[in-house]
Amino acid sequence: MKSRHFVYDLIQDTSSLPQPNLSIILKEFVPGYGSKGDTLTLRSNEAYKKFLVPGLAVYATPENVKKYETYKITTTEPEHSSLYSERTVSRLSQMVLEITMNKTQPWKLEPWHVRTSFRKSGFIVPEYAIEMPPMEIKGPDLSLQEKEFYVTVTVNNKEKVNVRCRIHHWATGLERLPWKEFHWKLPAEPLIPEQAEVLEQIPLPK
Amino acid sequence: MASSRLQVSARQLSRTFKGKGRFEIGIASELPKAYKKFWREWKVLKPAAVHFIPQEGKWKRDELTGQTLPIQNIPIPLKYPQEINLGIWGGEAVVKGFQKRDPKSRRVPHYWVPVLKRTVVKSEVLNTHLSVTVTDRTIKLIHDHYGFDHYLLKTPACDLVSMLALKLKRQILIELSNGCPRYAHNPEKQKEILDEYKTYLSSYTPDEIEWYGLSWFEALQKIAKQKEAANKPIPLKNIYRKNLLEKLKAEGIEEGNKSADEIS
């Protein structure tokens, strides 16, 4: 055999072929994807790296399909209200809600104030989902400025989450309070003594 | 001429002469049947077509001339670098040859090397994650077999090629034949896994599992060690001592008793 007998031609580059989809069955609830027993069809790379290697899912073989079918029939109530509720709860529990109140006019803190503050920071929260603190908060009172409390938000009438709140007194011109850098990162005293224990456990944003 | 006295020519002799095979020389002749079976699966069997598209049938017709031509599925000669044993390449290897990049220019030497990736594979039976060098074909095969263990257990040694894959397969087989001791803390899971993989055990005897996945030199070392352990020489001093004791027993025990009495 001579060199001329070993001239090869590339017919197909298999590394550049499109990846076929892969069917998997979830072994447990995965936020954003599905609950236990759900069949997902994903790109094979995603299915392998995110689900099969960590052991969150199994291949949708005929035996596994049968095994998880019976599971779906027997379970009645879902553990989570939606696929994304866990993410919402984790976001809410990490935030500091800044409630902006007037520095000159008298006011009393009401649920719609909290709802508006939530909307300003990107969360649409209906009033019936907000549980106000037990004490009535009235202002303007500059001693409230450095203190914090929490309100309880119910997500989808199911998951409850405590959200850390701080009141900021707002005014224009010379009345305006000076800007504090990274004020949401600084620790504050609890306004209501009964809430102190819970507030200690909620992590401050980094 | 002296050579004319020969009945057969040298060429004829060379045709009838059959050289000694690998398993007929020295200590290798004592290797068990189980290892020969593995060797056949590893080195004699024809691996699957990876680097060429095999054509079906026996004959084909040239479209232009109508000439009948035989179909020859000759595998491309492959190079197996050392690194192949450190990863699991799924039957891929290095192709050495020439490229004709332009009809007017001279052919150029070229090596076609598979695209290697490092990824994590999960072994259910061994209950571990492994970081291994693989190719896309390996991952595809793992998906097609519904799992890494199924891929290793279903694929013959000639397609696994690499020593790493063979060693893992050997370990998995040993683990299964021992009843998965790694899952001793969770008997439910242990039973589940044994049920899932027990079909593979039926094609191996315990002896075959013991000799599976050994390289040639490892197998020779193993048989040599076994031989050495079987014919362990007994030191002469032990034999002489035994003989002496027997002799003493035959006549000298009373004497010994007497001397003991005398001392007391």
TrEMBL record, chain A:
Tagged with keyword Ribonucleoprotein: yes
Every Ribosomal protein L9 domain range: 23-68
Protein family: Belongs to the bacterial ribosomal protein bL9 family.
Species classification: Eukaryota, Metazoa, Ecdysozoa, Arthropoda, Hexapoda
Source organism (scientific name): Eumeta variegata
GO biological process: translation
Pfam family of the protein (one): Ribosomal_L9_N
InterPro entries in UniProt: Ribosomal_bL9, Ribosomal_bL9/RNase_H1_N, Ribosomal_bL9_N, Ribosomal_bL9_N_sf
Entry's Gene Ontology cellular component terms: ribonucleoprotein complex; ribosome
Name of protein: Large ribosomal subunit protein bL9m
Record flagged with keyword Aminoacyl-tRNA synthetase: no
An example Gene Ontology molecular-function term: structural constituent of ribosome
Domain of life: Eukaryota
Keywords, ordered alphabetically: Ribonucleoprotein, Ribosomal protein
From TrEMBL, chain B:
Manganese recorded as keyword: no
GO cellular component assignments: mitochondrial large ribosomal subunit
One Gene Ontology MF term: structural constituent of ribosome
InterPro entries, per database record: Ribosomal_bL28, Ribosomal_bL28/bL31-like_sf
Source species, domain of life: Eukaryota
Keyword Ribonucleoprotein attributed: yes
Chain coiled-coil ranges: none
The entry's keywords: Ribonucleoprotein, Ribosomal protein
Family: Belongs to the bacterial ribosomal protein bL28 family.
Protein name (Swiss-Prot/TrEMBL): Large ribosomal subunit protein bL28m
Species per Swiss-Prot/TrEMBL record: Eumeta variegata
Gene designation per UniProt: mRpL28
